[in-house]
Design a protein that fits this description.
By secondary structure, this protein is α+β, with helices and mostly antiparallel strands. It has four domains: about 55 residues, no CATH class; about 170 residues, Rossmann fold (3-Layer(aba) Sandwich), CATH 3.40.50; about 170 residues, Isoleucyl-tRNA Synthetase, domain 2; about 180 residues, Isoleucyl-tRNA Synthetase, Domain 1 (Orthogonal Bundle). It is about 40% helix and about 20% strand. It contains 19 helices and 19 strands. The strands form six sheets. The protein has a four-stranded antiparallel β-sheet. It has a four-stranded mixed β-sheet with strand order 6-7-5-8, with helices on one face. The longest helix has 27 residues. The radius of gyration is 32 Å and the shape is elongated. The relative contact order is 0.09. The structure holds zinc ion (ZN). Zinc ion binds next to loops.
Length: about 625
């Protein structure tokens, strides 16, 4: 999804727009844009010190990935979990497309609120022109003013003649709004659509995809919305149906491109059942994931996210997999001329009849939700070796969109959780505590900071003070502070270099109180860092090492040994001790500051690479991962 949003900004800069572009041309252009930026992202990660297995780099639209996504969809369909149903979408009349929720903006408007006489009741609406699509009048179940009408049918004088509508009671109605009685127009309001579904009411389309009234509008058919509103209100006024009107400030959804009001439409879309038991497993996708977390097969860091997860899953509704956009994996669905759907594993079905392929694409989270196994393929040993993984590290903002989907689809297809620990990090805020995001355009460029202050400075500035799940604030002061720490470490190493010989052994030879004190502090820092990493408190590991190096090593020990280095009886042992403490310090710091520590290590011509040195304490799973 991200390439598409960023690509949109690129088009805008070039004075172009994706609307009106041929969908294949658009797809091709976004694809190549994504490919170019894949390289940029990779270079950024390398520059920041990420050491990944780049030979296994994967892209969502790689054919082998797509094949697995199709296979999963077919499996879910054959298992009775995929179905087709009509649901509302955000429709832009000007652009003739549906928009994702991210492409729709809220806009404050002041409109006229019309009070209309609906039989014995008065309803309030800002959209009288949609009244031809009304299927009921709804009131709140506890509203005693209307309880005697609930379950009865009333006769409404529409401009096209009298219409009978049922009065229903539904919790959705706000008794404080207008008169507390509202018209229900399921084809043109997503909330009304839900009400209609709950009450088994029909859907009547009063406005078509071009924003014109349909044939149920009688003599108003073919009129555009604004024109129809004026004509309908004039007629209602003549007929005495218009009781009063007042101005009304409210929020409407508008197209992010043209600011046109979003016209909800009901379209046929493909859904994945979340709470219906799978025929194959006897358990729903939702319960697969919830049970795995309850049984402790997956741990969330921190615990509050586990509670959030349960709350979300409890209220989980079926998942709309269809998106009416050009970018993505096209649904593997073909229709016969009779409208019968044929679902395949991606291959076009053979048929003597003419088949039409669905033009919708999958919601991007449907393929992202299969990431832990699509990336590993199905034909080589990687899946057996690397699934399930140890941990997933991601922002808490996509816990629901991504993590819960990976759990459900991983458990469903592989029979095992995709990961054992979910480490949720915060979202980086700027100094005004504003969230940074690509689409907002207030993102700091990590490469720019790395150029100016070094990659180690930005890595540690991001981690310092950042407990799991909290939002780290990044500021110039913090980055400079960490740059100063890098310089401090470099100066310590230079001091050690100047006071040791090429043949000085890296050995621990304690002689003085200062020696014993620094060793106690080093051991404590090592223990603490190990425990912190084991428990995913990476910030505590860094902070403890920072304290040790700045205060115990630089301020205290280095000052104390200046005297020891002058005395013939302590000189050689002290030199060895300095090397010992420095070497262990940079081993401990390497996961956090890989560049400066490796440079120091190489300057001393010690064996091999620092990054391959074992951790000073016996390794545990998490420690080994962090060290890698
Ligand atoms: Zn638009």
């Amino acid at each position: 999804g991200l390439p598409a949003v960023v690509f949109e900004k690129k088009l805008e800069k070039e004075g172009r727009t994706r609307f009106g572009m041929d969908s294949q041309a658009l797809y091709d252009e976004i694809f190549s844009f994504g490919q170019q930026n894949k390289e940029v992202v990779r270079q950024q990660l390398e520059r920041l010190g990420a050491s990944c297995d780049w030979s296994r780099n994967k892209f969502t639209l790689d054919p082998d990935m797509v094949a697995i996504v199709y296979k999963t969809f077919k499996q879910l369909y054959d298992d009775g979990l995929v179905y087709r149903a009509e649901r509302p979408v955000n429709w832009c009349i000007k652009h003739q497309t549906s928009l994702s929720d991210l492409e729709v903006k809220d806009d404050e408007r002041t409109d006229t609120l019309y009070y209309l006489q609906y039989g014995p009741l008065t309803v309030a609406t800002v959209r009288p022109e949609t009244m031809f699509g009304d299927v009921a009048v709804a009131v709140h179940p506890d509203d005693s003013r209307y309880s005697s009408y609930v379950g009865k049918t009333i006769t409404v004088m529409m401009p096209t003649g009298p219409v009978a509508l049922p009065v229903i009671a539904d919790e959705y109605v706000n008794p404080e709004f207008g008169t507390g009685a509202v018209k229900i127009t399921p084809a043109h309001d997503p909330n009304d659509f839900e009400v209609a579904r709950r009450h088994n009411l029909p859907v009547r389309e009063a406005i078509d995809q071009y924003g014109r009234l349909t044939s149920i509008g009688g003599s108003y058919a073919g009129m555009k919305i604004a024109e129809a509103r004026i004509a309908v209100v004039a007629r209602l006024s003549q007929d005495g149906v218009l009781v009063k009107q007042e101005s009304y400030a409210h929020t409407v959804k508008v197209c992010y491109k043209c600011q046109g009001i979003i016209e909800p439409r009901i379209l046929n879309q493909w859904w994945l059942a979340m709470t219906k038991p799978s025929q194959r497993l006897g358990v729903s996708l939702r319960d697969l994931a919830v049970n795995a977390v309850k049984e402790g097969k997956v741990t969330f860091l921190t615990e509050r996210f586990e509670n959030q997860f349960y709350r979300w899953m409890e209220n989980l509704r079926d998942w709309n997999l269809s998106r009416q956009i050009a970018w993505g994996i096209t649904l593997p669905i073909w229709y016969t001329e009779d409208g019968e759907a044929i679902i395949t594993d991606g291959r076009e079905p053979e048929s003597e009849h003419k088949l039409t392929r669905d033009t919708d694409v999958f919601d991007t989270w449907f393929s992202s939700g299969q990431w832990p196994f699509t990336t590993l393929g199905t034909t080589n040993e990687d899946l057996a070796t690397f699934y399930p993984t140890t941990s997933i590290i991601t922002g808490y903002d996509i816990l629901f969109f991504w993590v819960s989907r990976m759990l459900m689809l991983g458990l469903y297809t592989q029979g095992q959780v995709p990961f054992k620990t979910v480490y949720l990090h915060g979202l980086v805020r700027d100094k005004d505590r504003q969230k940074m995001s690509k689409s907002k355009g207030n993102v700091i460029n990590p490469l720019g900071i790395a150029e100016e202050y070094g990659a180690d400075a930005i890595r540690t500035a991001l981690l310092f003070g950042a407990a799991p799940g909290t939002d780290p604030v990044i500021s110039d002061e913090k980055i400079r502070g960490m740059r100063n720490f890098t310089t401090k470490l470099w100066n310590i190493a230079r001091f050690v270099r100047m006071n040791t010989e090429m043949n000085t052994k890296v050995e621990w030879l304690p002689m003085t109180d200062a020696d014993h004190a620094v060793k106690r502090a080093l051991d404590a820092a090592t223990q603490q860092a190990t425990h912190a990493i084991d428990t995913y408190n990476l910030h505590l590991a860094l902070e403890g090492l920072y304290q040790f190096i700045w205060h115990d090593l630089a301020d205290t020990y280095i000052e104390a040994v200046k005297e020891q280095l002058q005395q013939p009886e302590t000189k050689l042992a002290t030199a060895s001790n300095l090397l010992f403490v420095l070497q262990q310090s940079i081993v401990l710091l390497h996961p956090f500051m890989p560049f400066v520590t490796e440079a120091i290590y190489q300057n001393f011509s010690w064996d091999g690479c620092l990054m391959n040195r074992p951790w000073p304490l016996e390794e545990t799973g998490a420690t080994r991962n962090a060290a890698q």
